[in-house]
Amino acid sequence: MRWRLWLLAAAILLAVATVFSLAPIPQSEAYHNFADQRALLGIPHCLDVLSNLPFLVVGVAGITFVLRQPAPGVASPRPSIEFWAYLIFFIGVALTSVGSAYYHLQPDDARLVWDRLPMTVAFLSLVAATLAERASARVAAWLLGPLLAFGVWSVFYWRGTQAAGHGDLRPYVLVQFGSLLALLLLLALFPARNTRGSDLLVSLGFYVVAKILEVCDRAVFALGHFVSGHTLKHLAAALSAYWILRMLRLRRPVNAGA
User: Fold this and answer.
1) Residue burial 152-165, b: 16+ Cβ < 10 Å; e: rest
2) Helix 229-250 crosses helix 53-67 at what angle (to 10 degrees)?
3) Which residues have CB under 8 Å from 5's CB, separation 6+?
4) Closest Cα to residue 252, out of 72, 85, 61?
5) How far apart are CA 83 and CA 256, in angstroms?
6) pTM of this structure
7) How far apart are CA 67 and CA 1, in angstroms?
8) 2-16+42-250 domain in CATH 1.10.3720.10?
């Protein structure tokens, strides 16, 4: 087990070194110019705003599940570090609905901060939860606070550098893609203590689809001017979060039948 932890740490350190060896990554102001500019029902950028509602639904459902007593036999995160990590994850998902809707009403750098903050909380708390379940609860408990602090700092660091005219997204990029790397390594290196481990892969798959849709925002909208890639990105990302909730609802301890 220990060598796996060291391998995980080495891979993450290599990712950190690689990202920070790059030149600062600026963010173009064109980022805020989304394909679907339509106002409907008196709401600016209506579909990009309203498509955040599923985050709220999934987040509240997840918070409710984590807080309540589970059905007999369900592998519940309570009261371990998993409990706190998953609770923070679903709080982050719920707040993403609020932050992203606020941003899309009038997209600009200042509002983008409130879109990105809850997402970093969700990413990194999921890493901590998976680390606790598969590798080491003690290490996860030690890392949860620093991981969340780094995520929050990455957003404010970007905002500060952006305001100063030399925006640098490198820490935020590390949060997003470093989280994906960490989750994939945890799945590959450590045995599952609960069933439904493949659901995490499905969740990550939906998130990858969401990122592709984000990049293809205008191309998707051009297909019929009905819905944009960014609107669909919100739905795919919410589905990714839902799959985590589905995993928690259905999983059982691996040795439950022993």
Assistant:
1) bebbebbbebbeee
2) 10
3) 135, 136, 139
4) 72
5) 20
6) 0.94
7) 31
8) no
* Residues composing the chain: 258
> What is the tens place of the pLDDT at every residue in 50-76?
999 999 999 999 999 999 866 544 555
143 contact partners, CB below 8 Å, separation of at least 6: 128, 131
Per residue in 206-216, pLDDT (tens digit) is 999 999 999 99
Task: Show me where the domains of the chain are located.
Answer: 2-16+42-250
Residue 255 Ramachandran class (φ > 0 left, ψ -120 to 50 alpha, else beta):
alpha
Helix axes 81-105, 137-163, angle to 10 degrees: 20
Q: Which two tokens stand for residue 41?
A: 């029902």
Say which amino acid occupies 202.
V
The alpha helices in 51-169, defined as continuous H runs, are 53-67, 81-105, 109-134, 137-163
